[in-house]
């Protein structure tokens, strides 16, 4: 059995190597000497943008794979599974690069976002931005190539590629729906709750928990139909709980260093489940106050504090805690159906628990 | 044998159906009712953006497939080959959607570009733009899924998916290099010629001629290594000639209705092979005049006319004609190596000839 620290020490450099190789032009042709510098800028940025993730998704996939292959005495290539796990992380980087362009974010993981860094590198805003957009495209294609190569050495290889593409489409749909939520009027909080949870399923649970579990099940030789059902049963509530916890920590703060200041989502006017729950439960005057603050262009520090007070007073924060706790218990119950050994179950629960801070489980 | 008109009448609605189905959320989950409208806007735009292409790439792939399967008496699924040919067209749409965002183009094929149309649809510039970016991402993923499903019913299915991903990466690299050319100084015209031709290979020849031929060869059961060599030998010169002809027609005008006004590339200040050839051959005063005009932010109508005069006088236009003619003859010679019947060779040459106006061949 491998430790998390050991796995991380394998995953991290492996992502670097894969990204460096596959962001470069394929060996089907040459790159003209005059154009080598711009190509190198993009490769360097691909590597930089790929660094600094917590690798939760890759670790979940690997841990589930280890549990399943030991349990079923399957002899499948762990090396290939590592690459497949890395492909999820590369996909996340691709999605974040485009996300930062859409949100016009200057920073990501404490460093300049990819399109900003490329603007600085080439000293040209519009070309740098274009290179950032293309870097997202390149990473989104190369992660499929990484998955394809890995899948060739694993069970259910065709189902793995299909699932990888489905995961990618799900997240892209999630981004569209997330933009849709930004346009959803605040006058119908119940619809907003449904819409926000729906976005979590597509944009977050898809690639954070469902796909990593699905890839492990498929690679361990589980029948694709069973694998999809089992991955969804455990992964969907877990992924929703993960995103709810992330949004909650943004408001109540965290002992974890998330690198984000408290209240960031409120400052940005993000339409979260917390906001919808608060609007839903608020009295008329609190509701009007919340709506006015969120319909405004900007919110100052005093207003951010006031929103947090209203989130507390309406019970929205307690409701999020309750939602997370219920979802976590649904996910745990679904793990019971996987028919694992006592030790296997314990290890899988441990792997899943990483997605939810212990005081919120 | 199928006629081009008949093939087009199959391809066109098939693209519509595939794009409508695969742009929508996969059936792995539900879309919340409140978010259905934004999803439908994106699907509608995917269908609209997919319309109006000449389908040269799909037709080349199908024609080559017909010639090869008849020649080798291969019994491969023409229906699957049609889908694979459509996947190339869907990929082109994906690339154009992002291209228009990078270039900030308002129009495409005489209609609003995808991101502009989505801005109008949702009455919100930044969200519309974000949806446009995501539409490009969705189309880029779904064309791989179309190719994957098609490849399952064709020979060399794994090599087809691999080649499809390589094609996509090549075009993405081409876009990066194209942005690099925009930053290439005009002081070294020879480097500019090399760089521009290099961009043509990656950005245009890749998916316009090389990949369509390669997919046909693979689907007809040709050994992957031979297929790559043969597709490159015919497709690379043909694709370069196609792009050179396109750039030339932008300057000298065309009997074809390209939908573009004469001199558009010059107006935009595009660094073309024509410009590089002109700078290369110009005397000192003409060269300085050209450089000054192309280093300026904008060029007025008089300057566009003046540039065309200089392109003529320096022999750049004749040189482009000569380049196209040589490349076309290289492509024809490479077709001879395919060992086709007299009839097969004639039909393949006809299919390739569609890429070059007859007076430039």
Rg calc of chain A: 21 Å
- Proper CATH architecture of the largest domain in chain A: Orthogonal Bundle
Uncertain segments of chain A of ≥5 residues (pLDDT<50)?
none
As for the number of domains of chain A, it is 2
**What fraction of the residues of chain A are assigned to beta strands by DSSP?**
under 5%
**Element-level helix/strand string of chain A:** HHHHEEHHHHHHHHHHH
Sheet having the most strands of chain A:
2 strands, antiparallel
Distance between the termini of chain A: 26 Å
Mean pLDDT of chain A: 95
Pfam families (chains A, B): polyprenyl_synt
Keywords (chains A, B): Magnesium, Metal-binding, Transferase
Enzyme class (chains A, B): transferase
Family (chains A, B): Belongs to the FPP/GGPP synthase family.
């Amino acid at each position: 059995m491998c430790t998390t620290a050991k796995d991380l020490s394998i995953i991290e450099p492996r992502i670097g190597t894969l990204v460096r190789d596959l962001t470069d032009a394929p060996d089907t042709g040459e790159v003209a000497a005059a154009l080598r510098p711009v190509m190198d800028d993009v490769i360097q940025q691909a590597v930089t943008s790929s660094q600094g993730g917590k690798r939760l998704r890759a670790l979940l996939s690997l841990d589930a794979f280890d549990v399943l292959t030991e349990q079923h005495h399957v002899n499948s290539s762990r090396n290939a599974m590592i690459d497949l796990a890395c492909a999820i992380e590369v996909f996340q980087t691709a999605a974040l690069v485009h996300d930062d362009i859409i949100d016009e974010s200057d920073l990501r993981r404490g460093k300049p976002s990819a399109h900003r860094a490329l603007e600085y590198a080439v000293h040209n805003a519009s070309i740098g931005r274009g290179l950032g957009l293309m870097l997202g495209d390149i990473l989104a294609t190369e992660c499929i190539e990484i998955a394809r190569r890995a899948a060739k050495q694993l069970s259910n290889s065709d189902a793995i590629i299909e699932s990888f593409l489905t995961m990618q489409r799900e997240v892209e749909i999630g981004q569209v729906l997330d933009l849709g939520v930004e346009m959803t009027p605040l006058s119908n909080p119940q619809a907003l709750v449904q819409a926000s949870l729906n976005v979590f399923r597509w944009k977050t649970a898809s690639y954070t928990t469902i796909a990593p579990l699905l890839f492990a099940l498929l690679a361990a030789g589980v029948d694709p139909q069973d694998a999809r059902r089992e991955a969804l049963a455990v992964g969907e509530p877990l992924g929703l709980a993960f995103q709810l916890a992330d949004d909650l920590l943004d408001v109540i703060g965290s002992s974890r260093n998330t690198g984000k200041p408290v209240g960031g989502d409120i400052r940005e006017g993000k339409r979260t489940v917390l906001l919808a729950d608060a609007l839903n439960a608020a009295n008329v005057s609190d509701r009007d106050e919340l709506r006015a603050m969120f319909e405004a262009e900007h919110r100052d520090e005093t207003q951010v504090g006031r929103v947090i007070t209203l989130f507390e007073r309406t019970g929205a924060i307690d409701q999020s805690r309750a939602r997370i706790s219920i979802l976590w218990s649904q996910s745990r119950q679904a793990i019971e159906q996987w028919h694992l050994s006592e030790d296997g179950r314990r290890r899988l629960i441990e792997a899943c628990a990483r997605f939810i801070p212990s005081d919120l489980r």
